[in-house]
Amino acid sequence: MGCRQVIPMMLVAVLFLTACSLLSGGSGRPKGEVHIATVNNNVCKRLTERVVIYGVFVDSKVGGVWSTHDIRSTVDSMRLAADWIMQQARKKGVDLDIVVGSHERGGVVPVRSELPRGGLEGLLHGMNPASSLDRWADKACRQVQSAFPRDTARITLTKNTPKDRERLIASLRDRHRTDNVALMLFVNKYYGSETSVAMHTGSTSLIEYATVAFKRPGVIAHEFLHLFGALDLYMTPYDNAKDVSKRKQFAMERFPKDVMAFPFRGLDSLEIGSLTEYLIGWRRELLPEDEALLTGGKVRLAKY
Ligand SMILES: [Zn+2]
């Protein structure tokens, strides 16, 4: 497992620090002040109150097939991740209740959606990675949704053609009486090198979800926090810009125990640092040193 430590997990939709797509000047804000679209945005809005983390287990030729034991141990890891995040919230006085759910109902019923030959990594390096991965995810979500009892979710009654992920999220929102549903699709890769990725985390129209290839609670917590707006605090091969790499190096030094920097470590040695707290809505204002790290001092960030 040692070499796995260096396998990067990508955050496709978000480019740390220079994330233009995340920044928007809002009306009514002082000039030059921007809002980062990580809080109160999309499905996973703010990591407070009642939140659902929902695991979908996907079989595929390339990605692997799920056994009962594998699903159970992964659900256990989801619980450990959820418990750890709730414990971090309690320490900071944040009211948070995470419910762990999956489509397992007393037995193993993984869904099936084929990945291309190169697996997730191949797909992410291919043409149009977002739409290929979305199609793969939608096919899996459609099967989960079709096994539910009659669908009475508001969106499916009012919208003509809701997409599959949208439909599943709507049902889960109704069922759990919360807006905050973190959708995670798991592929069963123990030994291969696969990537975990959070998609559409800064989008205002496409439903965010994570695809996870590892069962480690730290990785699950890391991807879950991405869905609520946290950004990677370590260098990925996609950080080409020199100043971004430099700031990420500082970030790793400044947050030596942050789960967004070191997801492969054990959770009991990790914490949620001040920058991540701001991005997930646990802190109203960024500390000045974190702001410089995040924006390079080029823009001023709004308070939530
Ligand atoms: Zn990440």
Short description:
35% of the residues lie in helices and 14% in strands. The protein is an alpha/beta fold. The chain has one domain.
Description of the molecule:
- It contains 9 helices and 9 strands.
- Mean pLDDT is 81; it is low at 1-29.
- The chain has helices spanning 68-91, 119-125, 129-146, 154-158, 164-176, 217-227, 242-254, 274-279, 288-295, and strands at 23-24, 33-36, 49-59, 96-102, 111-112, 181-187, 197-199, 209-212, 300-301.
- By secondary structure, the chain is an alpha/beta fold.
- It has one domain (2-301).
- Strands 3, 4, 5, 6, 7 and 8 form a 6-stranded mixed β-sheet that branches.
- The relative contact order is 0.19.
